[in-house]
Amino acid sequence: MQRVYLPDIESAERMRARRLLEDRGFDVRVGDAFAASEQEVLAGIGDAEAVCVALGRVTAAVMDGAPELRLVVKTGIGVDNIDVAAARERNLPVLRMGRVNSFGPAEWVIGAAIAHLRRFSAMDAAVRRGEWGDLRQGASGLLPALTGRTLGIAGLGAIGQYLATLGRAHGMEVIAHDPYLPAEAAGRVGARLVSREDLFAQADVLSMNMVLTDETHHFVSTDELARMKPTALLANCSRGPVVDEAALAAALRDGVIAGAVIDVFEVEPPSADNPLFALEQVLLTPHLAGCTDHGYQEIGALTAELVDRFAHGRPVPRSSVVVEGEGLLVQDDAPAPAA
Predict the structure, then answer these.
(1) 191 and 235 fall within a common domain
(2) Which residues does UniProt assign to the signal peptide (predicted)?
(3) pLDDT score of 339
């Protein structure tokens, strides 16, 4: 296998996948879109044997329009832009970036929580308006600290586990809900597993760190929000549809919870009438939580390694496997280091 197609420039240039693959002897073709549509991917894939996408769409039509295609690689973790069911039907291997780029999203949760709780944006604007004295007097001793509060993590994978270590470093008690993780594994990163109900009821800062599936769609909706503390902060940098945006907006308007920090939306880009836009209790960023320089270096390196392993008949780590299709050899991951 030699021919690799990178439809979007985010994978090719920002993640350096083009250069890293060419350094390994692959014939690489690159598209010119930042987020390639189905039509753009289909128009450019040609005789490629592997396609690596960040935001580009790999649909059943793309698969059927690429007769030489043997491998699909997502240069990220969420595979909602890839038709996984179609790949499985065609016995086409699909890989993703398992166990890398964990630091950026975890850092975002802590940073966004501090920025929201300490009201950085509003304070910056107030100081520039000359309100230093009033602000200093009005807020002194009333700003919430992370220390002593409870961090709740929904999904204790690689990102969630690193977030647990950051929460502990900030003096937080860490609880988590993950039905697929044994209590011993949670304990190794200082987290205590709890039920889904207790997660919502006990967390002061509640972070969504899960992939989007039928099971996790609207994991947070009206009933779950009603269980949360009125002082709680919800953080989502996983996938937008994990949170029911309409329910979240209603809960914030009604004072059911105190605030939210949101990096991902149910529809991206979000429309101008998104109900969260009108709420001062929300801090918003444009799906950039994991888009750090360090994270992209990790992704580019793993992308080249996975393609190279598949091309030369060497096994890939199980944490990167989405569809175990034809020609793919798999091996168990090395144990993660203790926190």
Answers:
(1) yes
(2) none
(3) 46
Cα dist from 112 to 50, 109, 235, 260, 310, whole Å: 37, 5, 8, 9, 38
> Which pLDDT belongs to residue 300?
97
In this structure, the chain runs to a length of: 339
Q: Side-chain half-sphere of 212: how many Cα atoms within 13 Å?
A: 21
Establish if 129 belongs to a structural domain. yes
Catalytic residue among 13, 168, 287, 324: 287
Mean pLDDT of 41-68: 97
- Give the domain range for residue 108: 103-284
CB 318, CB 335: distance < 8 Å: no
287 catalytically annotated: yes
Instruction: Exactly one of 239, 245, 298, 309 is catalytic; name it.
Output: 239
Give CA–CA dist 152/193, Å, rounded: 10
Is the pLDDT reported for residue 90 higher than 80?
A: yes
**pTM listed for this prediction:** 0.91
Q: Report, as an integer, the average pLDDT of 196-206.
A: 98
Residue of 268, 280, 294, 326 with catalytic role:
268
Picking from 7-11, 166-170, 319-323, which range would have the lowest pLDDT averaged per residue? 7-11
Question: Which one, of 99, 59, 105, lies nearest residue 79 by Cα?
Answer: 59
CATH of the domain at 164: 3.40.50.720
The yes-or-no answer on residue 239 being catalytic is yes
Largest CA distance in the chain: 69
- C-alpha distances out from residue 6 to 13, 58, 165, 275, Å: 10, 12, 35, 35
Closest CA to 163 of 214, 212, 109: 109
Q: Give a yes or no: residue 338 inside a domain.
A: no
The answer to whether 149 is a known catalytic residue is: no
Tell me the percentage of the chain whose pLDDT exceeds 70.
99
